[in-house]
Fold each of these.
Amino acid sequence: MDRMFGRPIVTQEQMRMRIRELGRQITMDYAGKDLILVGVLKGAYAFYADLARAIRIPMRVDFLVVASYAGKPKSSGKVKMVTDLTEDIAGLDVLLVEDIVDSGLTAQYLINTLHKRNPKSIKICSLLSKPERREKHVPIDYVGFEIPNKYVVGYGLDYQQKYRNLPYLAVLDTVDDDG
Ligand code: 5GP
């Protein structure tokens, strides 16, 4: 599998270091708060597992599943919640954990949807951001890495549901991602 992608654009070591920093920052920012870490599946699963263990305060965990790309590399422009949270987030400090913010549609949809449930606060932590592709302005409070406009796979991110288990992040050259 590794041979297909050549050099990673974010290595396992870079990922480990950055997630440790994010964990420290979130630990400081959320000290004394009632944090619930909400993973946006499937893409965030690997990042979520590592980030959660880098946060050193008691917190709740929960997950939701969204579908926005339906197996295609480009955004279909529609976001749907396929599986909802199991916890009531009213009064809690919600931190959404995403794999990547691209157009911003998913992040905006989730903020709007979850806001209606009266959390005390709601913020976003995304492993990756592609600022060049942004259509919706959504503040991302914590970003792992800003990357260029390339289609990436690995570390949770897929191409047609595969390659999520690649332990680093690599560019998938065969995908035309010009919009
Ligand atoms: P947005 O709604 O911000 O346009 O897109 C968010 C979703 O698009 C991400 O959660 C991810 O599933 C998918 N996505 C965007 N860019 C990429 C990419 O480069 N690689 C992969 N695998 N998924 C991407």
Note: The two ends are 27 Å apart (CA to CA).
Amino acid sequence: MVSRVIPVDPFDLVIFGGTGDLARRKILPGLFRRFVAGQMPDDAQIIGAARGDMDDSEYRAMTEDAIREFGGRKVSDDAVARFLERVHFTTVDAMGDEGWAKLAEKLPPGRVRAFYFSVAPSLFGALAERLRHFGLADAASRIVVEKPFGHDLHSARALNRVLEEYFAEDEIYRIDHYLGKETVQNLMAVRFGNMLFEPLWNAQYVDHIQITVAETVGVGGRGSYYDKSGAMRDMVQNHIMQLLCLIAMEPPARFEPDAVRDEKLKVIRALDPVPAHHLVRGQYSGNGTHPSYCDDVEDPRSRTESFVALRAHVSNWRWAGTPFYIRTGKRLRARTSEIAVVFKDAPHSIFGADAGRHRNVLVIRLQPNEGMTLDVTIKEPGPGGMRLMDAPLDLTFADAMSPDADEVPDAYERLIMDVIRGNQTLFMRGDEVEAAWAWTDPLIDEWEARGDVPQPYDIGAAGPEDALMLMHRDGRKWREIRG
Ligand code: NAP
């Protein structure tokens, strides 16, 4: 099945930080793929902006390199040439007053205007102010801001206030690229588009939920940033929180931005504080091949966690008593992100103890190979009586939706097109971000006050021993981390 592409209105997209890593790896290649898919109108404009001195042809050469490196398989010379006709560059300093008038001249009136803040958050306020001051933002304007959205509740609030000074909430698009993933949206389709799951989606039938986001890489070149952040701020407060919300939320009345975001906010507000014994922090040790976390960040005494596991509870009618186990970390056994909804045992086995008992598990896999599997219990084939086994019903989206895996849009390209369409459903609202920080801040404050040292774990393991114990104590176990 070939995906249906609905073209968007003519637009001008200005990428502040247009020469940076994010622009080169994600934004520009993503736009190119949407162009190839036929979604971009002929007169759309993409304008890179940064302090560096470049002309259009130099920026086009940089964009072409980025597309060839990160644009996927369908990079024909003709498509690249046609795409580059839409690409321009302007020199502008977020903190200065030069270049803004020239940028304004490039923006025709009466079209959608999107300003992507792909720069350090410390520049967000200055950019927002100048967009207004120099008259670049009009009624059809919107801004896109990247993570990290704050470092804690205090800084997130400050960032929200400064943006709100110049832009209304419905003009602010806070990106969490996890929400742009095909599987994450399919999670909503599966939950709310089928009769099958929703009646079972509660504490009565669900034993527990596991959310795992495992990486094999270390902090690499991001050491100085990561060491000030850690797994809790870098992954749990934003990406994992969003996944948890989509799993746990009540059905919104409509698939509309505020209806969905209101329900997500209720989940965050229903989260109990996590006691210290339900939380494990870890840090990878070095081996002969790879350095330890402390070596990676060049601070032998760093107490920042590269791994966190916790047991969360959503205290509401639907989920009372159902644990949500969360773990995320670097330098783990495999690169995988998944949500597993583990259903309870059937109340009675008619087959007797020898047949074995199996549980239904719905696994929503974000990477690798986005898709879902549902473990169902069947009879072991062959003679020898009734013995039961698990068989997965497998729905790998790339196979199911299109013969060409390249056609499954990347999260960034989908979200950028949503910005142009003016659809905020998959973007975080300011109050959601603040509520998420309000939940994680006390956990971080508490371990900082205790001077907690993270537990070491081996590279290639599944995290520290205590993370395994977190589930063992409850008579459960983590799913294997498999790539
Ligand atoms: P980067 O590689 O350091 O690039 C920064 C960009 O901002 C460059 O184009 C730089 O060009 C421009 N810039 C810096 N100061 C400026 C100023 N005063 N006025 C105008 N432009 C300025 O950073 P990045 O990795 O692309 O990250 C950009 C943002 O996205 C950050 O907030 C980051 O946290 C976030 N983010 C990045 C990733 C990622 O994968 N890279 C993922 C998630 C979120 P000049 O120096 O020439 O001005």
Note: The pocket of NAP is lined by residues 16-23, 25, 50-52, 93-95, 118-121, 123, 146-148 (CB under 6 Å).
Amino acid sequence: MLPKYSLIIPIYNEEATIAALYDRVCAVIDRFDAPAELILINDGSKDRSLLLMRELHDKDPRVCYLSLARNFGHQIAVTAGLNYVRGRVVIVLDADLQDPPELIPALIEQWKQGYQVVYAQRTERRREGWFKRFTAYVFYRLLKQLADVDIPTDTGDFCLMDRQVVDLLNAMPERNRYIRGLRSWIGFRQTAVKFERDPRFAGDVKYTFHQSLALAISGLVSFSKVPLRISTYVGLFSAFVAVVMMILVFYWRIAYPASPLTGLTTIVVAIFFLGAVQLLSIGILGEYIGRIYEEVKNRPLYTLSEVAGFEHQAK
Ligand code: UDP
Ligand code: MG
């Protein structure tokens, strides 16, 4: 029998949480009104995660897993899972139990009310460190200002999606997969369920600062063309400043011929300013061109080294 609910859980070096995760998820799905499947995606873990996933699969046929051939990153791991789901209702959650599985029935309740996307919105980040909280706060507000689509603030990938939405997501060819952005872009009826984000169950944060920054830039660049315009604006502004300076310097030269102010200082400052503006603009251009390059290469999004649990179903 085909499952009605599919849970997607990306896993990267989570050996310390998998057992607890399985228990808590089972407590929830055992009470569902229809069968569920659990899709675990091993994102190139270097610890015993894959081993534990195999064990779970052996003892519980509801557990299927995919193993990516190396670490491809969270967004791609989720994408791989989305490619394999069979249920009508798809739920994405983190493995570290920061996204409480106990919230899933509330998400499903909204789906039954007729919403195709139900995203969990965090109201509080308990014990996540001021730096992470602050940068996340700034980023989500900035994204809201700049993005062409309305991406709700403080939502992660923890959400429920209807099959219809997942099929559309899967049909999107792009490689820069900022899933929470694409999810908003798709449209349909969407709603939020609020929750308090728990601290990580065990282990360290798997997203490095660099990865978080890359995800943030990816979100901005994939959903906004405003940064491209920044160089135009700054260029216009410096042209204006240049004209004003020209007039001032001309006046200064005539009024105070002996003043050193109009000499070296002005030139050095102007050179640095323009240099900075140009490098910044080239950097922004590079972000977009790099992405175009990634897209045209058209490589597969990920490579799989192992797939288990989907045998009965021709893909
Ligand atoms: N993760 C992954 N690949 C990575 C990094 C993380 O699949 O390269 C998974 C990780 O196992 C967890 C989820 O993505 O299930 C979120 O990671 P983490 O808790 O480190 O990030 P945060 O809570 O800061 O979003
Ligand atoms: Mg986490």
Note: The pocket of magnesium ion (ligand 2) is lined by residues 94, 96, 98, 200, 205 (CB under 6 Å).
Amino acid sequence: MKILVTGGAGYIGSHTTVELLNNNYEVVILDNFSNSRKEVLENIKKITAKDFKFYEGDMIDKKLLRKIFSENQIDAVIDFAAFKAVGESVEKPIEYYTNNVSTVLSLLSVMKEFNCKKLVFSSSATVYGNPEVIPITEECKTGNTTNPYGTSKLFVEQILKDVYTSDNDFGISILRYFNPIGAHESGLIGEVPTGIPANIMPYISKVATKELEILSVFGDDYDTKDGTGVRDYIHVVDLAIGHIKALEKLNKENKGLFIYNLGTGVGYSVFDLIKTFEKVNNVKINYKVVERRKGDIATCYSDPQKAQKELGFTAKRNLEDMCKSAWNFEKKYHDEHK
Ligand code: NAD
Ligand code: UFG
């Protein structure tokens, strides 16, 4: 089976490509390197000892998409290509809606032209806004997103629902990721944010390498066990495996619209994360508690039961594995790129 992976050179896309190749899928990657580097492609090949086809370009480009679909018999698409920085999306809404929504319209129209009707889409727990109930099930209300990034995911979810309503031959799986962290055990692929990281794990890793001086903990006065924010951190390799399960389900059912949370169902606080990182990696993380970050919520974790029951997916790697693998990647990357 041949899978087009858009954004396959990125953080989650590269880990998913590894799992796809390891499971004997054929892969075609489309990426414009707007947030990734060419060396990732070589590193995927090193990890898997397998090859894949690559096209450089922008997913908005229908001409390029038509070329890809005519040169390859694509059976399904996994779409990771998007911008993902929450803060930046507030500054650049037009760029975010173009890159996160218009690109999907290009993709869907070319998929239809070529009668390719299977799609796995990267959504986010951000679509739940400030959740009314914890743990969050797929039935929880979506909406009230607080930034264009989150709203772009909500829009695409609606577009996908409308496309399915218009054509029930589509098989679409919307995956709502919680907080992916960690890296492949080889240390060859991982998360490489541009500029100063906005997310916690890359920030902690850069404090550990001493590239950054001190971690700001955004608030210790939340209504949580230690006052810091609680999140459902999921190992990126588990998340990648979740995509294989979602594909298998689409192949089995052939048609339908499915929505799944991908998380562990366990919430950890910022202090849990810092302490675990320090313990398993034997490093010190300097931190100071500062004001809450605007738009943050106290607690967010998933009810992962639907994915367990319907996909047979359970995240296996624990917080220690996440912290160890993140540091293993960061050290190697830092040494090779300084
Ligand atoms: P990433 O930035 O590492 O990967 C995205 C990849 O897509 C990059 O390689 C980038 O160069 C490419 N890309 C972006 N726009 C493109 C375009 N128009 N045409 C071709 N390539 C393009 O991000 P990631 O963390 O791997 O996220 C992948 C997907 O998962 C995104 O849709 C993101 O919104 C979603 N997501 C991520 C998280 C997270 O915490 N990382 C959480 C929830 C959802
Ligand atoms: N945090 C800090 N200091 C930092 C960064 C984060 O204390 O420097 C705290 C936050 O306040 C929060 C927790 O660490 O309590 C996690 O923050 P992240 O920024 O790593 O992740 P978020 O939960 O805010 O958001 C992430 C992605 C979003 C996605 C959301 C749900 O960035 O794109 O998960 O999937 F929508």
Note: The two ends are 40 Å apart (CA to CA).
